[in-house]
Amino acid sequence: MFCGYISEIPLNLAKGEKQMDDQSIVELYLQRDENAIKESRNKYEAYCYRIAMNILSVAEDVEECINDTWISVWNRIPPVIPKSLKAFLGKLVRDISLSRYRAVHAKKRYNGMELILDELAECIPSEQDIQESLEQKELSGTVNGWLDSLPQEDRVLFVKRYYYGETVKQLSEMQSCTENQMAQKMMKLRNKLKAHLLSGGVLE
Length: 204
What we know:
The chain is mostly helical and 204 residues long. It contains 10 helices and no strands.
C-alpha cells in the first residue's frame, strides 16, 4: 500500500550533491557490481534511515535494518528489476523494520510505530493486527483509491505519516503550522478515510 505515491515525496539531498541516476544504479546490480550498494547508500541511506527510525526509534536496531536492506536488495536484483529504485528500497526497509517491530512488540521497546497504529485504529477498527489488515487486497485498493481522490498536499501528508512514519511535529514544521493544527488536519483525513471505507462497505 502507498508505494505508488512514493515518487511524490522529495528526497532531502545535500545542496550541490551529485547522485548517480537510478537506472545506472540498477544496471550495476544487474552486472553484479558491488558499487551498486555504494551508490545506493550514497543516494538513499538517509531516506532509508528515516523510514526505519520512524518505525523503530532505536538507533542500534535501525542500523541493523539498514544493513539488512542492502543485503536484501543485492539478493533481489536480479531477478527483480524495479521500476522505481526509491520505492523498491523504501518498501524493503519498511518491511524489514516492521518485521523487527513485530518480533519485539511484546517487549514494548518502540514507541514510534505504536502511535501510528493507534491512530490508524481510529479509522480502520479491526480485531486483526492493523498492519495485516492494510495488506489485505480489498482494503489496500480502497485506501489507494481514496488517496487518488485527495489533493496532492493531503496525499503527501498522509503517506508521510502512515507510510514513512514521520511525526506530527515533523509534518507541522514542513507545513509551517503548529503541531495542534497538524494533528487536527490528520484527524480530519482519518475521519474522511473512515467515511470512505464505511460507504464502500469495507467496514461495517
